[in-house]
Design a protein that fits this description.
The protein is an alpha/beta fold. The chain contains 20 helices and 11 strands. The strands form 3 sheets. Strands 3-2-1-4-5-6-7 form a 7-stranded mixed sheet, with helices on both faces. Helix 9 packs antiparallel against helix 10 and helix 13 runs antiparallel to helix 19. The relative contact order is 0.09. The structure holds nicotinamide 8-bromo-adenine dinucleotide phosphate. The site of nicotinamide 8-bromo-adenine dinucleotide phosphate has 22 residues, from helix 1, helix 4 and helix 6. Belongs to the 6-phosphogluconate dehydrogenase family. Its EC number is 1.1.1.44. InterPro entries: 6-PGluconate_DH-like_C_sf, 6PGD_dom2, 6PGDH_C, 6PGDH_Gnd/GntZ, 6PGDH_NADP-bd, 6PGdom_BS, NAD(P)-bd_dom_sf, Pgluconate_DH. Homodimer. It catalyses: 6-phospho-D-gluconate + NADP(+) = D-ribulose 5-phosphate + CO2 + NADPH.
């Protein structure tokens, strides 16, 4: 009998995804440009299930039952197009082609349109969870037509992570919706990681704690509302000692963070949509700054504050404040990310269910966290919530956190410990809640130098003041 699903591209992700399908009892056709990877997979893991190795794309396609379900797991960009071009002439109307790589959602929209012209379903699917997730259950964010989800959904739900018995996979929406949501997921991941890193830095260089002690603090936090995969692994990394030097591992790693680009895409897209995702942007910039070795070397030795440490009593209370600040800043970062999804959904008519999106991030993916239940609940209660921050739970948490949050940002500034993520989150919060913003002054400046006009609070219409003349106002 023919294979039920095919995977082409058998590097770490594709191989583990193919094994995941096989372990769930599916007959899996496997193919890779370089045949050695296909052979190796079958030799090493053939006992795990029914694999149908194929040496050529033709062999791969004919080994699949129809409508065919093909998952492409190759390097994003040109390689994905190359594989699609190779497969399309071999396929039949109704077949479903999935791109499980980290494609840009605009590429996915283009590919979906092109394949639709051939009567094929193209599904751009976000898959999160890395190598281990692919094998043991990732969080899956498929886009594409409703028909494609009917053919493909049950298999994806089978291999996805489960939380309380529910699969971490849902049909996100048409064409690029899945990859868009995956992109924002990665952006949020950047923000979350940056905030955790800042919490560490404040405990280390503000409160004078050692990495091992901070690991214990994080373990404690992981038993509470901050419980998440990222906090858990952070504690592990901080507790780790470098074998070669006997020093804390975190002290021997070069402090220049790298990036593959999905965080940058999130910010670029947010700029286009006009959505302030300052938490994600600061995280991307923080990585860039860390990598600017020459700049940092040149600036090293610039004057800093004279106060450099908290005393020990203050330091104990400070750890509690940092937990509050981290929770509040994290709320802001997620609220911003969900606003971006909301905006993308409106712009491209995707009709994305925000509550369902938060629910499938509870398992399998890097940002999995207890906290996501709160987001699902907030959007279930009100699908049109303008910002998560006004939901009852979030509002109460902010009320409880805000004075700690302010102390942490103030202390960071006083001690000269950079906390761009915490600071920008607080500034966003205060900006949103402000009754009046100095944007009125910016409008005045714009009108002064460029006659860009302004609106008034007390009358409708568009106005200009004759700044160079008698400063009378005229309606434009
Ligand atoms: P890579 O991104 O390293 O890609 C390697 C695969 O692409 C190999 O199978 C390679 O075939 C194939 N390939 C290339 Br390169 N050029 C090709 C071409 N012109 N035609 C056909 N095949 C080509 O693999 P990965 O790390 O498993 O990631 C796969 C996708 O999943 C990527 O889009 C990645 O961004 C995404 N992703 C990765 C992770 C992760 O944790 N690694 C997590 C989530 C998503 P070869 O063997 O013949 O060279």
């Amino acid at each position: 009998s023919q294979a039920q699903v095919g995977v082409t591209g058998l590097a770490v992700m594709g191989r583990n995804l193919a094994r995941n399908f096989a372990r769930h009892g599916y007959r899996v056709a496997v193919h890779n440009r370089t045949a050695a990877r296909t052979t190796a997979l079958v030799e090493e893991f053939g006992h795990e299930g029914e694999f149908r190795p194929a040496r050529t794309p033709e062999e791969f396609v004919t080994s699949l039952e129809r409508p065919r379900r093909i998952v492409i797991m190759v390097k994003a960009g040109g390689p994905t197009d190359a594989v699609i071009d190779e497969l399309v002439p071999l396929l039949d109307a109704g077949d479903v082609v999935v791109d499980g790589g980290n494609a840009h959602f605009l590429d996915t929209r283009r590919r979906e349109q092109a394949l639709r012209a051939h009567g094929l379903h193209f599904v751009g699917s976000g898959i999160s969870g890395g190598e281990q997730g692919a094998l043991e259950g990732p969080s899956i964010m498929p886009g594409g037509t409703a028909e494609s989800y009917r053919v493909l959904g049950p298999l994806l739900e089978d291999i996805a992570a489960k939380v309380d018995g529910a699969p971490c996979c849902t049909h996100i929406g048409p064409d690029g919706a899945g990859h868009f949501v995956k992109m924002v997921h990665n952006g949020i991941e950047y923000a979350d990681m940056q905030l955790i890193a800042e919490a560490y830095d404040l405990l280390r260089h503000g409160a004078g704690r050692q990495p091992g002690e901070i690991a214990e603090i994080f373990r404690g936090w992981n038993d509470g509302r901050l419980e998440s995969y990222l906090i858990g692994i952070t504690a592990e990394v901080l507790a780790h000692t470098d074998a070669a030097t006997g020093k804390p591992f975190v002290d021997v790693v070069l402090d220049q963070a790298e990036q593959k680009g999905t965080g940058r895409w999130t910010v670029q897209t947010a700029l286009e949509l006009g959505i302030p995702v300052s938490g994600i942007a600061e995280a991307v910039f923080a990585r860039s700054l860390s990598g600017s070795a020459e700049l940092r070397a040149a600036a090293h030795g610039l004057p800093g504050p004279t106060e450099t440490w908290l005393d020990s009593a203050a330091s104990d209370r400070f750890a509690e404040d940092v937990e509050q600040a981290l929770y509040a800043s994290k709320m802001v970062a997620y609220a911003q990310g969900f606003n971006q999804i909301q905006a993308g959904s409106a712009e491209y008519a995707w009709d994305i269910d925000l509550g369902a999106t938060a629910a499938i991030w509870r398992g399998g993916c890097i940002i999995r966290a207890r906290f996501l239940d709160r987001i699902t609940a907030a959007y279930r209660a009100d699908g049109r919530l303008p910002t998560l921050l006004t939901d009852e739970h979030f509002r109460e948490a902010l009320a409880g956190a805000q004075s700690s949050w302010r102390r942490v940002v103030t202390t960071a500034a006083q001690l000269g410990v950079p906390a761009p993520g915490f600071a920008t989150a607080l500034a966003y919060y205060d900006s949103l809640r402000a009754e009046r913003l100095p944007a009125s002054l910016v409008q005045g400046q714009r009108d002064y130098f460029g006659a860009h006009t302004y609106r008034r609070t007390d009358r409708v219409g568009t106005f200009h003041t004759l700044w160079g003349g008698d400063r009378s106002e005229e309606e434009r």
